[in-house]
Amino acid sequence: MVRENQIPIEGACAWLGADMQDDPRWRFVLSSDDVAELKAACESALKSGIPWARMTKADFPLVNLPAKLADMAEELEQGSGLANLSGLPVEAFGDGLRHVWYGIGLHMGQPVCQDSKGLLMRDIQDESQDTDTILGHKLTARDGSTFKSSKARTLSNNLLRFHTDRTDVVALLCLRQAPIGGVSRIASSATVHNVMLQRHPELAALLYGPYHRSRLGEERGGEAMSYALPVFGQRDGRFTSHYSRTYVEAAQEMAGVPVMEAGHWQALDMLNELADELCMEMTMQAGDMQFINNHVIYHARTAYQDHPGNSIDQRRCLHRLWLSMPNSRHLPEDHAVLWQNVEAGALRGGIVQG
After folding, report:
1. Residues 336-344: contacts with CB within 8 Å, 24+ apart?
2. 132 pLDDT more than 80
3. Residue 320 in contact with residue 170, Cβ under 8 Å?
4. Which of 118, 213, 241, 265 is the most exposed place for a label (fewest CB within 10 A)?
């Protein structure tokens, strides 16, 4: 009998970076009519006086653009897992830009919280500060050194390793790009799984078992809490992978967490090596909107440099949404510790509010 951890993932989600680079299936462009529709919806929302974070889909009325957004949602779930929508004139919306971005998100899925305080839209930029200490998320390693959380690493200009976010789809709107670096690196986790299965099946099998992860103070219960979750999973022939090495490394610094064996570290090393080998790269420009299905894609970022002396409102900046998708897949039962509800189309993901 063939076990699920011996079955390669087939279909459009299993792609090679070299092939995807110029593939048009994941590239979408706003037309002039689309932009006009967004401007009208923005004006309507601003006139009503409703804050962007309290909007519903009805508060941001769109008529024709939702058909294009539905095609993107289909590509995200049934296709490559990647969609890029370009052509948003970010400067044209002024104070209404967050309404526009959140409104697009509402017509794609349901935005979910990105921290324990109910944050629905995060600005991804270099804050040039000790983020962990300010937010009370500081973790000290066993050797006494300071361990930087995933959030602190995200809000810096350093590279980000391949990882997934805890949501069906992560959506990024680029307001400003850095003059040097800040390149998006995107890899099919299904292809990483398949190649590892071919080259190192024993390591692939380990990734179907539980890995302990720290909550790093970002969820209820504080940094003393951890949970166990597999990196790979399948249900009904559909694949999912949830992976962030930072959380695994942080858990290993915590008392009471089982010490990982060498083979488990080797499996994580191999995952990263394959993602690096098989990925594609793209540099987002102002007005680009990138949507990534975390179940089938790992994403990373190269380090970057802003213009010297820039104030924070001139630095590289992306607006991030986490979306629970109505067309999402079933997930394995042992993934409920992260997702709460593992049924297809369920409202899930994000940070549970206390």
Report:
1. 337/227, 337/228, 337/229, 338/166, 338/227, 338/229, 338/242, 339/166, 342/235
2. no
3. yes
4. 118
Measured between alpha carbons, how far is 184 from 164 in angstroms, rounded to an integer?
13
- What the block records as the tokens of 2 is 């063939």
Tokens of 230: 């597999």
Spatial distance between the Cα atoms of 23 and 84, rounded to a whole number of angstroms: 12
> Residue 196 and residue 88: Cα distance in Å, rounded?
39
Q: Is the pLDDT of residue 138 over 60?
A: no
What is the CA angle 303-150-80, rounded to 5? 70
Domain boundaries, the chain: 4-339
DSSP string, 73-84: HHHHHHSSSEEE
**Bridge partners (DSSP) listed for residue 322:** 170
Q: What is the pLDDT of residues 193-209, one digit of tens each?
A: 999 999 999 999 999 99
Q: Which residues of 89-108 are buried (b: 16+ CB within 10 A; e: fewer)?
A: ebeebeebbbbbbbbbbbbb
CATH code at 4-339: 3.60.130.10
The pLDDT of residue 276 is above 50: yes
